[in-house]
Design goal:
Length: 299
């Protein structure tokens, strides 16, 4: 994604972004630890916040402090999972810098992720909402289940439907949490019909986002510790395997087959189109911002 175009999407909600960044921080008695964590978090793209606020405003919802605090909590949860993921994946870099596990060690990276999880739990209790607590509990369980299932499916070619379900568990779950909890916090100002609509939006957007990321990684194969090299086969490889005579996985990955790429692009388009259908009757700067964001993600 172009940084300038991405910043333009944020410019639509600049006031909300400014307030969000004030509540997105970690406090700890050891200032060095707090600074290291806050530096890591500050480099986040904050896309779940962006999509959630744009969608709320596209539906003409009033943004309250509790929305920003909740989305900051989702961001902490997201970063906790990244700290743990980078240890599991033996990642060397994250967001253009040394990964936290490389600079601080695996044990400390895991502890740091654990601390962020504890922060999330504490803040959710403060909301005093059983509905919200259940949403977070379900999301965390789904994320962990997705990782466990992925571990047991390494070096196996999944059917495309199972791959999509894995994408939902690993990535869409956090988009669903961010967006759906934001609308739940609107209370009586949000109808049941609107809740159902945004559930569909968040699910489809999250799935498309993950598949898009997988496709970019397939094309670039930028990391020596890429998913592909760890036996995590994504949509382009799956399509190529089932649609072509070539059955050697290593050759499929090296070939960058057009068939696999084109079928994956069609899948991405399908899920993004399903998401955008939800806002097709919305005609304001925020719905336009969401459409622009989708185009940007697909670049």
């Amino acid at each position: 994604m172009s940084d300038n175009k991405y910043k333009k999407c944020f410019s639509i909600i600049s006031n909300e972004l400014s307030e969000f960044e004030k509540v997105l921080n970690v406090n700890f008695s050891n200032k060095s630890f707090a600074n290291d964590l806050n530096d890591f978090i500050s480099r986040s793209k904050k896309i779940r916040f962006l999509v959630s606020i744009l969608l709320l405003k596209a539906f003409d919802k009033y943004i309250q402090t509790k929305h920003l605090e909740n989305l900051a909590n989702v961001e902490l949860l997201h970063n906790a999972t990244l700290l743990h993921d980078d240890v599991l994946d033996k990642a060397m870099t994250r967001r253009g810098k040394k990964s936290f596990n490389l600079s601080h060690g695996n044990n400390f990276a895991i502890l740091s992720g654990d601390y962020l999880f504890s922060e999330v739990i504490e803040k959710i209790i403060e909301f005093k909402s059983k509905t919200l607590q259940k949403m977070y509990s379900d999301a965390i369980k789904t994320l962990i289940t997705g990782e466990i299932e992925q571990n047991y499916s390494k070096f196996k070619i999944l059917e495309i439907e199972k791959y999509i379900e894995k994408s939902r568990k690993k990535t869409a779950a956090l988009f669903e949490l961010a967006i759906n909890s934001s609308f739940v916090l609107c209370g009586k100002d949000c109808s049941k019909d609107e809740l159902e609509q945004v559930k569909e939006f968040s699910k489809n957007f999250g799935i498309a986002f993950q598949i898009c990321d997988d496709l970019k990684n397939y094309k670039q194969n930028a990391s020596s510790q890429s998913d592909l090299e760890q036996g995590i086969y994504t949509a382009p490889v799956i399509f190529e395997y089932f649609l072509c005579t070539q059955k050697n996985i290593s050759d499929i990955i090296k070939s960058k087959s057009l068939i696999g790429i084109e079928k994956t692009e069609a899948l991405i388009n399908y899920y993004f189109e399903q998401a955008l259908k939800i806002i097709e009757m919305k005609n304001n700067v925020y719905s336009d911002g969401l459409r622009d964001l989708v185009s940007l993600i697909k670049e």
